[in-house]
Structure formats: structure tokens, C-alpha cells
Write the C-alpha cells for this entry.
Amino acid sequence: MMIDPSQEPGPNIGEMVLHHTADAWTIPIDFPFYHTTIHLARWPDVHIGSVTLNFSPTKHVYFMLLAALLVFLMMWIAGRQLQKTRQTGQHPRGFSGAVEAAVLWVRNELVLPNIPHGERFAPLIVALFFFVLFCNLLGLIPNGSSPTGNLAVTAALAILVFLVIEVAGFIKLGPKGYLGTIFPHVDGLPPAGAMAMSIAMAPIELISKLVKPFALAVRLFGNMTAGHFVILSLFGIIFIFGRISGLNWAIGIVTAALVTAMMLLELFVAFLQAYVFALLSAVFIGLLQEEHH
């Protein structure tokens, strides 16, 4: 009996997309001739009143640790190579030269032009750039996952930047100058009117402070998640249209070409989003450093 391909059960494309982009306590390993799943240890739940919490490290936590380890190893290896080349009086080249050029580019193009006397903030911005970059790139390798596709991860990075912005601004401006960023002085008004205007502007200024980390978190999360959704959805076209038309090979070739193009675009987006996150972080820090002007 001939079986109609359109009646055969096929994969759930929506479930496949969510399975590869959502966080979990498992890490699937899929190769052409080997399939397994790593089940991560789950700690007991913590009950605080009526709230139940679980602090077990998930898939994205392990990939964040991997990204941090890769950044550390890259800097450590490059630092040792640079130290040896300087001792011999040679110019940096190869891997160490590329890393040094990237670090100097972030320092000279992102930090110093946007933060007055920003040398002390350069290590933070450099670390943010490379950490976000490695988190983005891990989602493009087979069986990998992108932690920056998790809103909780991007929100944590944004909160870190927010704390640096506000604490560094408070230290630079002092208590009086920092309050001036919340209650701005309006020139050209009588004292009573200026005070009333400052008080009226305070909620707007507070909202503007909170919008900055919100924009950082949502922009990075949205861009990284959207790219993975598009790539996995294109993969699903092979199964959907292949079952309907029976032209699996033709659909597969066309879809593979589209997915390859999208992967190259995602590679560019991974670098671009790391650049944008580091740039905006530097700009936001610099804005509060100059607020008293």
C-alpha cells in the first residue's frame, strides 16, 4: 500500500525551535551517528514562604562559564606571548598580535572617545565586549547554545552596567552633583518655578536612568533570539515542504543555501551586537561622568 507523504507524522517545528533556544537542565548532543543528552544535576528547591526557587546551574549557565573560560584563556595566552615577544624585542604578530589589536581597538575607539579619562573603565568594556562576543558565537557552533539569547542573562549584564554607571557617576559628581542628575536645574525661571520644575522633571530623569539598562538587555536578547529562530525555522522548511511536495532534495538544497547565508549573517550580527553593547555601555557611563557640565 502506498503511503501518502503528507499523512506521515513529521517533526514539531515549534517544539524544535523552542528546544534549541530555551534554557533547560539538559544539554542535547546531536551528531549524524551519535545522539545523547547530558542531564545536568538539579539541586533541591528552596522555599521562601509561598515562593519556590531553584538555583541549579542550567544549560545557559554552563555556556556562560565556558564563554568566560575562553575569554580568560585567550587573554592569558596572548599576554604570555606578548610578554615573550617584548623580551626579545620583536613586534607582536599572529594570535597575540590580533588579540592586542582587538583590545586596543576597543580601548581607543569605544572607551576613550566616550568616557572622559576613561582608562579605568577600559578593562570593564573590553571584558564585556569579548564575553558577549563569545556568548554570541557559542550559539553558532554545533550543539552549542547562546546565553545572550536568554533575557535573564542580558538583564544581569545590563544591571551590572547600570550599577557601574550610577556608582561611578556618584563618585565623580559627589552627592550634590549626583542629585542634580535627578533634580535638574532649569535656568531662566524664578526660584520657586525652578524648584517646581526640578521636582516635576525628577520622575522623567529616573525613568531615563532605568530605560538605559532596559534598552541594553532587550536589544541584545531580541537580536540574538531572532536570528536563531529564523535559522531553525528555515531548517523546518525542509520537513514541511518536503513532506507535502515530495521534493526533499530540491527543497533541502535551497534551504541549505538560505541557512548558510543566514549563518554568515548571524556571524556578523554576533560581532555587531557585542560592539553595540560595549559602545552603549561606554556612552552611558560617559554621559553621567560629564553631567555636571
